[in-house]
Write the C-alpha cells for this entry.
Amino acid sequence: MSTNAAGTGRKGLVLAAMIFAVAMTFIDQTIVSIAAPKIQTELHLSGTGVQWAINSYLLAMAAFFAFGGRLSDTFGHRRMVVIGVIVFAGASALCGLTPTGSLAQTWIIFFRAVQGLGGALMYPAALAIVVNTYELRERGRALALFFGIAGGLTAVGPILGGYLTEWTWRGIFWVNIPVALVALLLIAVSKPVTRFQAAPIDYRGLVLIVCGVALSVFGFQQSSVWGWHNPAIGLSIAAGAVLLVLFYRYERRQDSPLMNVAIFSDRAFLMQCVVLGLAMTVFLPMFFFASEYAALSLGQTTQQAGLTLLYFFLGFMVTAQIGGRMLDRVGAKRPVVVGSVIATVGYYLWASKMTSLDLNKETWYIVMAGAGMGLMVGPANTDAVNRASSLSYGEATGITMTVRNYASSLSVAILGTVLVSVFQSQIASTLVSQGVPAATASKLAATATHNGGSGQGGTGTGSGTIPQWVRLDFAHGAQTVFYIMAGMMALAAVVALFGLPGGVQADSTASTPAEEAATAA
C-alpha cells in the first residue's frame, strides 16, 4: 500500500482533521498560563498549586508520549486519535467543573494531568497520519502548514484566554469541546488510512519512564517552596535521574520496547532531539513567564497580555512556512541553524529591554524571537520523524514529543526557581537600600515572592497598585530568565551547526515485505 494512502483528493481534508484534533493540545499549552492568576484567586490555590495546574499537563504528556506513540503504531493511528480527542475533551469539561473548596486544587491538577494523557494518546497518532498521508518531498510543506497553523493556535491561547477569563475562567476549558466535535466529524468524513502492526506493550518500561519524569520534575518544581536545603529535593531529582537511566538501559534489552532507543544510534535523529529539547526549554515556558512579566511589570490585563504575545506569533507563523519550504528544498540544517541564531538574538535583545518597562522598546525583538522559533521548530521535528520507518512514525513522534515536553516541564520548574530567587534577592536589596534591616528585608521578600508575583501565579490584574520598584524588581527576575533562554537557543544553534548533516534527506521509508503485510487501519 502506498504511503499516500489517503489519496490526493483527501489529503487536505485529512490534514484539516488532524489540525483540529491537535488544536486543543496547542491551545491548552498557553491558555491556562494567562488565566492562572484568576484561577488561583477564585479557587484559593497556593502559588505552588497553580504552577502544578500548569505543569501537570506538560508532565503527563512528557511521561505518556512514548506510550501513546507505541499504542498508535500497535492499535492504529486513527483509533488512537479518536480515543485521545474524547479523553482530552472529557478532561477539559471536568476541569471547567472544578468545585470550589478544599477539593479544588487536587481536582484541577488531576484532570489537567488527564488532559495531558489525552494529548499524549492523540498527538503521535495525528502526526503519524499526516506523515503517512504525504510523500517525503511533500512533507516539509504539509507539516509546515500543520505546525504553522497548530502552532499558531498556541497564540490563540493567550488571546482567547484573556477574553474568556473576563467571562469565566472555566470557559478556557469548555472551549475545547466544540473543537473536539469538529475534529471527530472531520475524522469520520476523511477516514484517514495508515498502516500499523500489532506488538506487545512494555508496561515495565512505562512505569520506569513515568516515575523517572515525575520525580525529576517534582524535585525542581518544589525546590522554590521547600528550599534546596531540604534533602527530599536532592533525593527526588536523583531518583528521577536514576530511573530514567534504568529506563534507557532496560529498553535496549527489550525485543518490543516502549521506546525504541536504538533509533538514537542515528546521529541525525539524536542531534535533532537535542536541538528540539533545547528549543522547548524556551518555547512553551516563554508563554508562562512572558505572561507574568506582562501582568506584573507592564501592568497589563489578561487581554492585553494575550495580545502582546500575538507579536511573537506574527513572526512565528510567517517563518514556519518558509522553514517548511527550505526543508523540502535544501534539508533541515539550514533553517534549524539560521532559526536558532535569529531566536538567540531576539530573546537576548528582548531581555535587554525588559527593565525599561516599555513594551514599545520590546515589540520588534518579540517578533524576532518568534520568527526564529518558527523557522527552526517545524524542520527539526519533521526531519527527526522522517528518519523512522513508515510503521514507526507514531513511535518516533512519541520519542520527539517526550523530549519536547519533558524539556518544557523541567524548564518551567527550573526557570521558575530562578525567577523566584532573583526576584526575592532584588526585593531584599531594594528594601535594604530604603533603610529596612537586612533580616526584616529578607523575610518580607520571601513573603512577597511566595504570595503572588512570584512567577507562580501573580496577580494578573495589572500592576497599577504595585509599587514601581516592585515592578522593576520582577522585571530583573524575568530578564535573567530570558537571558538564559537566549543562551539555550545559542546552544541549539551550535549543536545544529556541528551535529546535523547537510542536504536533503534521502527517502528511507520504502516499503519492505513486512510493511506490505501490515494491517491497514
